[in-house]
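User: Hello, beginner here. Can you help me understand these amino acid letters and fold codes? It all follows right here:
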Amino acid sequence: MSVLGYVFGVLFIIVCVALCVLVLAQEGKNQGLGAIQGTVENTYWGKNKGRSREGVLKKITVALSVLFIVFAIVLNMGIL
């Protein structure tokens, strides 16, 4: 295994740990129960979810998920 392979391996481990932490840091989605009770998400936070803490966590989680898949494919191909 070359030096580049070790670098990709270490980055893969870092992405894995960060992805686990971000998934655990996100709040659960209880949308089904809110619809039963008749609550509506027309609040300020409901309209601006992309700018809130949860929106930022979701965007970072998607980016790390893509990196996870790319690193897994590159490391599994055996070209490094």
The chain is about 75% helix and 0% strand. The mean pLDDT is 82. The longest helix spans residues 53-77.
